TrEMBL record:
SUPFAM superfamilies: Acyl-CoA dehydrogenase C-terminal domain-like, Acyl-CoA dehydrogenase NM domain-like, POZ domain. Belongs to the acyl-CoA dehydrogenase family. It comes from the Eukaryota. This is Glutaryl-CoA dehydrogenase.
Length: 577
């Protein structure tokens, strides 16, 4: 029996069709002849032909015996209620898996996607495999097909390219067997790792994130990011969720931390920033700017007191270096620490401090009056004289919370001092750790821009064809894709040197400057592809572009990093007269 769209005209019933005949009223039908199956709180749109082919099995599951009545509708399709009986559904799926079904040329994308969903839910692996293979064959170049693979956990670009030699071999085999229709999908999957980055990772680093996009960003953060962006709201559950996955302070050994490589840390930042730079900033401050200095410059007692709770996200940390009058010139800071009996008194202010309004512990850098050196101090919320109001109405990083720190004769005890670090080298080591993570993170944001722009360009049609078919659109995507691949390899090399103890600050400045600048440049270029839709936050690329303006500025502006590199090249400092 053909799976083509049923005619609205009533046809003769057969014993096989029984009550599954095509309805008499054309207004019941969706334009492509689909119905909606509803079972176990799930809905799938399926072509009517799938049901009529297997009506003898399907009728036992069908709750409403007369589908020719309009009944409830979803998106113009009649709803078919199924008994939520796993055994009966499994029986139906086994019967449905028939090689003859997949030899038909009229199976629509909706049918295949529905069969994939049903096969996955009820563990009918043969059905899943056959449907996925057919979907690849029938829809090799559509974004919708790829989305179905990713969303249904069938095909993972990262899992395939984690051993990219296999994918390269598969492409060669497809060519040898003249299976040219499958090549676009193979090349598309390969494009997620065009320079085979995955082959350079250790097993530990590959294991840092699941084969699909990590559970935390995709399933937990992404659904909330637009609301956070629109309301400039901070969600206190995010850091604890990250803590449960071992994403906070992950390079630290002990104290409940994961103890992974710096490359693994970079991979984590990349995946978080695929969702939003603000979320990555929240995690980066906690890990690189708060936990790092406590671990590097603190006492054992300070580590025991703070690190385990920071690692779980139970408490939130903030890092105070930038001041209202001193951003790129921290040596001129005005915040002071005065030594008194039993401790110190701090006075001054900091601004543009991520996490400050919700922080429980603050790593604050101050110029010590007794010797003029800069040292770090640990302050806690609710200390007398300490306030941290929120800076509102930001036009970027709206998914993270930012504030100021005001210290009016804040008195702390001797054990608040970080004793092992003094001078600007101490806070700069924290900044270099954060800069390294940023170089990975912004590439994740750019990758998300590329993916979303590609999908939009394939779906959006102008002048009778997809935007993706125009040369200038392909040029924009190709250039962005190239810079993302090169930037990631540069960060990987810096991470390897960092793990080997061979890192110089100039290297970090190079990847921070390059990757932030390229991510900002190409996110703006890709935004042009969306035309007027670029103004709508639901497309996400505009949000990334706004955020990337900030990442190009904080932890050292693009120009400051150029001066750092210039000093390394010439031996002459050009920061000031």
């Amino acid at each position: 029996m053909s799976l083509s769209q049923p005619s609205p005209a009533k046809r003769a019933r057969t014993d096989e069709d029984s009550e599954f005949s095509s309805p008499t009223r054309s207004d019941v039908w969706h334009s492509d002849g689909s119905v909606v199956l509803q079972a176990s709180n799930m809905q799938f749109r399926v072509h009517w032909g799938v049901l009529t082919m297997h009506s003898s099995v399907f009728k036992d599951l069908y709750s409403v015996p007369q589908p020719d009545l309009p009944g409830p509708m979803v998106d113009g399709c009649p709803v078919v209620e199924l008994h939520d009986d796993p055994e009966q559904l499994a029986h139906f799926l086994r019967a449905l898996y028939n090689p003859a079904l997949f030899s038909q040329k009229t199976l629509s994308f909706d049918v295949l996607a529905a069969l994939i969903c049903l096969g996955r839910k009820y563990d009918c692996q043969e059905l899943r495999k056959a449907s996925a293979e057919r979907l690849i064959s029938e829809f090799p170049t559509t974004a919708s097909a790829y989305e179905a693979f990713r969303e249904q956990d069938l095909v993972s670009p990262l899992s395939l390219t984690s051993s990219s030699t296999t994918l390269y071999d598969a492409i060669q085999l497809l060519k040898e067997q003249h299976l040219l229709s499958a090549l676009p999908v193979a090349y598309f999957l390969l494009s997620y790792d065009p320079l085979n980055l995955e082959s350079l990772l250790t097993e530990e680093e590959v294991a840092v994130r699941p084969d699909e996009r990590p559970i935390l960003p995709q399933e937990t953060l992404l659904p909330r990011v637009l609301d956070a962006w629109r309301t400039e709201g901070y969600n206190p559950s995010i850091l604890p969720e990250m803590g449960k996955l071992g994403l906070l302070g992950p390079t630290i050994n002990g104290y409940g931390c994961a103890g992974v490589s710096n490359v693994a840390y970079g991979l984590i930042q990349r995946e978080i920033e695929r969702v939003d730079s603000g979320y990555r900033s929240t995690a980066s401050v906690q890990s690189s700017l708060v936990m790092h200095p406590i671990n590097e410059f603190g006492t054992d007692a300070q580590k025991e007191k703070y690190l385990p709770r920071l690692a779980t996200g139970e408490i939130v940390g903030a890092f105070g270096l930038t001041e209202p009058n001193h951003g790129s010139d921290p040596a001129a800071m005005e915040t002071t620490a005065e030594e008194v009996d039993g401790g110190f008194i701090l006075n001054g202010s900091k601004t543009w401090i991520s996490n400050a309004p919700v922080a429980d512990v603050f790593v604050v850098w101050a110029k010590c009056k007794w010797d003029g050196k800069i040292r770090g101090f640990l302050l806690e919320k609710e200390m007398k004289g300490l306030t941290a109001p929120q800076i509102k109405n930001k036009i970027a990083l709206r998914a993270s919370i930012t504030g100021s720190i005001f210290m009016d004769s804040v008195r702390v005890s001797q054990d608040a001092l970080l004793p092992k670090g003094q001078g600007l080298g101490a806070p700069f080591s924290c900044l270099n750790s954060a800069r390294f993570g940023i170089s990975w993170g912004v590439m994740g944001a750019l990758e998300d821009c590329i993916e979303r722009t590609r999908e939009y360009a394939l779906e959006r049609k102008q002048f009778g064809r997809p935007l993706a078919s125009f040369q200038l659109i392909q040029k924009k995507l190709a250039e962005a894709h190239t810079e993302a691949a090169l930037g990631l390899l540069a960060s990987l090399q810096v991470g390897r040197l960092k793990d080997a103890g061979k890192l110089s600050p100039n290297m970090v400045s190079m990847v921070k400057k390059n990757n932030c600048g390229k991510a900002l440049q190409h996110s703006r270029t890709l935004l042009d592809v969306f035309g007027g839709n670029a103004c709508a936050d639901e497309y996400h690329v505009g949000r990334h572009a706004a955020n990337l303006q900030v990442t190009n500025t904080y932890e050292g502006t693009n120009d400051i990093h150029a001066l750092i590199l210039g000093r390394a090249i010439t031996g002459v400092q050009a920061f000031a007269n």
